[in-house]
Write a structure and sequence with these properties.
3-stranded mixed β-sheet, 6 helices, alpha/beta, 6-stranded mixed β-sheet
Length: 202
Amino acid sequence: MRGRLRVSVPTPLARFGMGGVAARFARTYPAVELEMVIDDRFVDPVSEGYEVVVRANPLPESDLVGRRFLRTQSVLASLPSMPLPRHTGERVDAVVLSATRSQSAWTVLGSEGELTVIPREILRCSSMTLVYEAVLAGAGAALFPAWVIRKDLAEGRLKAWGIVPNLDLEAWVLHPPGHLTSPKVRAFVDLLVDEFQKSETS
């Protein structure tokens, strides 16, 4: 197996996990030239020369085919030093993604039951990486895919307030149907799915 494989990846997945996938693929298939392009916009794989695209929550009418490799809940989290609201309807400093719609309230399912908080948007960021760094710097609370911050929660850098329902994130690896039989595309898809399945169970 040889040749070039061009893959489009959104920033959050590039920051949290794709480096290991790329390294493993390069070691396993040294004759394949892997080019991984980080881009948050909606790329057209056919006209822009991508064999594979990675997307979060792709639209069902997409003419691409592929596999889901990650499904994760949304968690509201902050620094451990930020106090949890005691009453429903309290306003909290919040960091939000620029691409998301402004929300008047977040309903959080935590260890103490259901709580509704009102986000006071302190900062809007264009990428999840910026949201993550701003929260670690103490700017406020934010919604994260649970998979992104699981190590931070386990090691005490961040504190989970609870799950925010109906905001699950699905990540898919997709390609045009004509590439279905390409050995390098099939190898990348299989390796990516396997790598994330291992990380979810580790």
